[in-house]
Amino acid sequence: MSYEYKGQQPPPYSAPPAGFTPATHFQPPPMAPPPQVPTVIITTSAPTQLGEEPTRTKCPSCHADILTTVDYTANSCTHIWALVLCLFICWPCVCVPYCMKSCQNANHYCPNCNAFIGTYSN
Ligand SMILES: [Zn+2]
């Protein structure tokens, strides 16, 4: 029931023999040096992704960290929805698109200097 194998374990196949010297004719493919990219950190802040809610951003005019004030204006989508509601559903619903933020453009303004920041539209 017992194995008769008592010999020493053969050396692992990958183990090089003593005094192994790698072949000198083999050269790894030369690695292209990475291109020299100037590490210039662009400090001009990218425009903040504006949403339909007041957004915290940096005012491009007065450079203050502000929470924008949002003015909602009707866009073409709003008028189309109003027309559709008026014609096909019921005319009292015409005011609904004008009350829905998601159907309107959100104009962001700086509360400090009233500078126009940007418009968010769906
Ligand atoms: Zn400002």
What is the secondary structure topology, with strand pairs?
Blueprint (H helix, E strand, L loop, with lengths): L55 E3 L6 E3 L1 E6 L1 H14 L5 H5 L4 E6 L6 E5 L2
What's this entry about, in short?
The chain has helices at 76-89, 95-99, and strands at residues 56-58, 65-67, 69-74, 104-109, 116-120. With 122 residues, the chain is an alpha+beta fold.
Question: How would you sum up this structure, described in words?
Answer:
This protein is of the alpha+beta class and 122 residues long. The protein has a domain at 56-120. The chain is 16% helix and 19% strand. The chain is built from two helices and five strands, in the order E-E-E-H-H-E-E. The protein has helices at 76-89, 95-99; strands at residues 56-58, 65-67, 69-74, 104-109, 116-120. The strands form two sheets. The chain has a three-stranded antiparallel sheet with strand order 3-4-5. A two-stranded antiparallel sheet has the order 1-2. A hairpin with a 6-residue loop joins strand 1 (56-58) and strand 2 (65-67).
